[in-house]
Amino acid sequence: MSGKAASGPSNLKLVGLVAAWYAGNTLYNIYNKKATNMIHAHWFVAAAQLVVGIVWSMVMWGTGMRKMPNLTAADIAACVPIGLFACLAHAGSVLAMGVGAVSFAQIVKACEPVFAAVVGLLLPPMDVKPVLAYAMLIPIVGGVGLACVKEGKGVDINVTAFAWASMANLAAALKGKMGGSVTKSLKGDKSKNMDSANVYAVMNIISFLFNVPMVVIAEMSTLQDEWDKATAEHGAQALITNIALSGFFFYIYNEFAFAFTANVGAVTSSVLNTAKRVIIIVVSSIVFVEPMERNTVIGSAIAIGGTFAYSMASKKKPAAKKKKA
User: Fold this and answer.
1) Rg of the chain's alpha carbons, rounded to an integer?
2) C-alpha–C-alpha distance, residues 229 and 164, integer Å
3) pTM score
4) For residue 260, what are the β-bridge partners?
5) How large is the average pLDDT for residues 298-322?
6) Which of 34, 53, 105, 160 could anchor a disulfide with 96, C-beta 3.0 to 4.6 Å?
7) Is the pLDDT confidence value at 177 over 60?
8) What residues contact residue 305 under an 8 Å CB cut-off, 6+ apart?
9) Residue 227 phi/psi, 5° resolution?
10) How many beta carbons lie within 10 A of that of residue 325, not counting itself?
11) Percent of the chain at pLDDT exceeding 70
């Protein structure tokens, strides 16, 4: 049987990428929560996680398993704003899950399309979505709001976790808005060796460089005390293991997510990213015994369903006009 030129990635490869993405993301959330439960120096944890990714990239480049990026000073300068927002998106998520439940942080992060829609309208070039996409923002916001209503208590919000998760959402929206054209340009120039994996690796390094000053400003004065307290209570090996594994799975799941998006496009990736939140919420609720009241379950389902619908509606283009004969 004659071989045919592959028209795209095999289904087996795509399934493998999704499985690795989901598994890595779920394990990252588990080990990240364990690490932030042990030590109350969450900017430090976020920075340490990025170090693991940097070591991984250096090994890949140093051994020749992956081509090293070939970037000019101008290329790096163009990546700096994206790295800044990547830093804030990552740190915001770590801090949100550090001070609150993983499930709550994931529910709030389902609001990311709301931030993306606003950023798309405010920053040039303006990105106007179909009316149906904007309509889907209503169930997203409403679902998150319902999830915050506790039976017999009324509105019950972990304000700090909500604020950090919202910062992560805004930073992710800004990263997507400002980074799209830059990363597309870098990937398009084969001489720069900037495939999806290397784009993420470079952003990870820049993100770390922005994270370090925040550790110094926010936590350096208490870091040694917090470390000593954490190692005395949990042991240095357990603390280092959880930080290292959270960093490893953070980097790996992002690599697989980037690779999957490069193969199938943003729409399919966005839809599966929505489904991923369901898995994380369920698993984290079981692992960390996080209570899921009726309103939380219904609200999160509505919000995640709205995010799914937004992902589908926002990419719909008007049907092409038929040419007259």
Assistant:
1) 21
2) 25
3) 0.87
4) none
5) 77
6) 105
7) yes
8) 139, 143
9) -65, -45
10) 3
11) 91
